[in-house]
Known about the structure:
Elements: E1 51-58, H1 64-72, E2 77-80, H2 88-91, E3 97-98, H3 103-107, H4 114-125, H5 131-152, E4 155-158, E5 179-184, E6 187-188, H6 190-204, E7 208-210, E8 213-220, E9 226-233, E10 236-248, H7 257-263, E11 270-271, H8 280-286, E12 292-293, E13 298-300, E14 303-307, E15 312-315, E16 326-329, H9 343-347, E17 353-354, E18 359-360, E19 365-369, H10 371-376, E20 394-396, H11 399-406, H12 410-426, H13 438-444, E21 466-471, E22 474-478, E23 481-482, E24 489-491, E25 497-503, H14 521-539
Parallel strand pairs: 1-2, 1-10, 2-7, 10-25, 11-22
Antiparallel strand pairs: 3-5, 4-5, 5-6, 8-9, 9-10, 12-23, 13-22, 14-15, 16-19, 17-18, 19-21, 20-21, 24-25
Amino acid sequence: xxxxxxxxxxxxxxxxxxxxxxxxxxxxxxxxxxxxxxxxxxxxxxxxxxxxxxxxxxxxxxxxxxxxxxxxxxxxxxxxxxxxxxxxxxxxxxxxxxxxxxxxxxxxxxxxxxxxxxxxxxxxxxxxxxxxxxxxxxxxxxxxxxxxxxxxxxxxxxxxxxxxxxxxxxxxxxxxxxxxxxxxxxxxxxxxxxxxxxxxxxxxxxxxxxxxxxxxxxxxxxxxxxxxxxxxxxxxxxxxxxxxxxxxxxxxxxxxxxxxxxxxxxxxxxxxxxxxxxxxxxxxxxxxxxxxxxxxxxxxxxxxxxxxxxxxxxxxxxxxxxxxxxxxxxxxxxxxxxxxxxxxxxxxxxxxxxxxxxxxxxxxxxxxxxxxxxxxxxxxxxxxxxxxxxxxxxxxxxxxxxxxxxxxxxxxxxxxxxxxxxxxxxxxxxxxxxxxxxxxxxxxxxxxxxxxxxxxxxxxxxxxxxxxxxxxxxxxxxxxxxxxxxxxxxxxxxxxxxxxxxxxxxxxxxxxxxxxxxxxxxxxxxxxxxxxxxxxxxxxxxxx
Length: 544
């Protein structure tokens, strides 16, 4: 069984007898020129190890699948987790993971194929991934789910309660079936339930979990192979030997504000990722000369800013903006996009830069709804209860008054509604095509069965009182990180694998590029490459 308080580790002064290998590139978080890490120990010097395992997994999010697979294949595994909790951002998610051509689809007669999935991914990633990674993911993801089903007895299925279309229409997409979930006792487990099952399995397999323990440095031998991890717990340093490899799964860098400002293509104001996501894995890999990929990208998640200092917000998974009788406009009263489209796609609308006014024209924007919306659907921040209006939602009897309170140009708003409202009554949106895509209809539109709608995503903004709130770009995770190959191995600046080092999830430069192909894309990729990394690691001979 995993230890319950893994902060109770050895407090020996490890630094006296160990050194970290390799020349590294700069850590941008430091905001300074590149530094060289400490040279290899002198001949005859030895490392005093606090703990030893075959595979060391850093992070208890999507990388847990890597830990489970490695342990199931007979490896001794240690998980190092920075926080006191298990599951990271993944445990707080909906728990869906995107797996093309999976067995549950086939059982329901939903057509998909390897070729179809590859075509779709190559199209939506727009050259920001590689054929090698795409093909590795498409091949591995269905096998990964079957492995977890067969080895652990878990039930996985598509969500039969609603359609969950791919996020992009067109060639290679399917209207339903690629997003899978774990089911426990016949009920959809979501992220929390899934990770309860994962932790129970880890404990049964004897995986040691070191909570409140942060990975700090990778340890290499004279040949440049990664042979261990230097970590910190309760102010003390421990060294963990990894005979077969270290798998980095520390998440993204959402909560390192220096990095988000340096790397991301536009500003973010809040993040749904756990606060421990500060780019630790990326920084450790960079010190060994790892190559980076997609560092300017993030999984966009618009919503409502609640605490700027803590980067906290009320996320909008198109639950509010995509409903009838709601709209999103900028301060000029202009719509900024298709309000019913997937969150990652809508996020891009915020980062339009007006070169004349020299500003991000759409940041912030404003969510606006009328009395009819309030009658049928929950307000942001209401815990999904219809009729509850949080204090931070602005209210007004007239639209002009609401615009004045929010700082929206009323004349511009009127011009927008002169076009939007008549079209909405007819169920059309010639400007942004809202409600024309399967995702819009199945995921974002009306679920109350309203008979007055010609389009489940459209209705006019016309009946007071009116409601509104500032609307900002955020993230559910950054997706730039260490470049990997088809086995999840980290690649250096010369295009060569760093022996003994792997990266999965948002610590790696995502196979998805800048796209979010479907619900659970982050989890699907993290699980699949965790599966591949574990199998590759346990197959290799221990490093000297």
